[in-house]
Amino acid sequence: MELRHLEYFVAVAEERHFTRAAERLMVSQSGLSASVRALERELGARLFIRSTRRVELTEAGRALFVEASRALASVRSAKEAVAAVQGLLRGTLAVGAEQCIAGVDVPSLLARFRAEHPGVEIRLRQAGSAALAADVAEGRLDLAFVALSHAVPDGIRLLPLSRDRMVLLCHPGHRLAGSGPVRWAALGGETFVDFHTDWAARRRTDQAFAEARTERRVALEVNDVHSLLELVGHGLGVAVVPRPVARKPQAAGLRTVEFTEADVCAWEVSAAVPDDRSTTPAAGEMLSYLDRLPGADRVPGVPGVPAAPVPSDATAAAYGPGPAGPAGPAGPGPAVPAPVTPAPAPRG
To answer: How distant, in Å, are the alpha carbons of 162, 213, 250, 304 from that of 152?
Structure first.
């Protein structure tokens, strides 16, 4: 079995199309098809169901896809490890992140990495946290910035970066604008603007309402932060978001309402990496930029909820001040946080 055959197979599986896969790999479509057929003959199994518009993986193809992705990632890691021993940092850094992930300034991190390591190709994928965690586990991403509110998937470990609270955003003319802290149970009759169900913030909010045994109506679903803020700004609904989202300039005209102490909801952002500790040299260098969350810090007035990290002087110099800034450089040498597993949700 040749690595080239596996690479071609994975490209077709990801693109769901032979022509697009050939264009991505910059090879002829006939050569790509011949490699896939050779792989199918060697394995004695059909890997794709082909149609005129797209291709789908068979059961055998799905099984191979997981292992092929891991094998290719291991080969890439091996090559990059040899380069690192020689004092070179080359290859590819595949990073995943939710859009506008609260607590981490991903563009700034990538810009710094690019400036310091121009020989490494950076690839970025935006998706929901669950999908990104699966990509890390299966070797398609080196690391991902995620906010998981459920059990940690097999194959990854989480390195804690920041924690903050979820808050309610509403129009200045809304009945709750300027009110004191609210309870989840008091929001059952509201109309909500929220993200799609694969977004971590949506899952965390759904979980909180379920724990409060309160039904809610999500009338407007969006797939970007700015649309959510605009819809709330026009009075079309309220939204529950991580506190850093409420601090964005686009949210300046909205009102932020806290939840009561009994109903406070924590938002946790982590870096997801492979659990076998086979972090690539490029991913290890990226992780070395991140400070560890101070575990002793707490949100003022809310027992048990850790605060977001306070940027160090080095962080402020690199990224600029601001309460929602990213975790900053760790100084000399890597400072990789210890793994953390979110605690199971309490049963109501």
So the answer is: 17, 24, 33, 21
Q: pLDDT tens digits for 274-305?
A: 886 667 788 888 888 885 433 323 333 333 33
Report yes or no: 130 and 258 within 8 Å, Cβ to Cβ: no
List of residues 6+ apart from 3 with CB closer than 8 A: 71, 72, 75
> How many Å separate Cα 241 from the centre of its chain?
16
Going from the C-alpha of 151 to that of each of 154, 160, 275, the distances in angstroms are 9, 15, 14
Q: Report, as an integer, the average pLDDT of 202-207.
A: 91
CB neighbourhood size of 148 (10 A): 22
- Determine the Cα–Cα distance for residues 337 and 288; give it in Å rounded to an integer: 10
Longest CA–CA span in the chain (Å) reads: 68
Tell me, yes or no, if the pTM score tops 0.70. Answer: no
First-to-final CA distance of the chain = 52
Interatomic CA distance for residues 15 and 21, integer angstroms: 6
pLDDT, tens only, 52-66:
777 899 999 999 998
Determine the Cα–Cα distance for residues 147 and 342; give it in Å rounded to an integer: 10
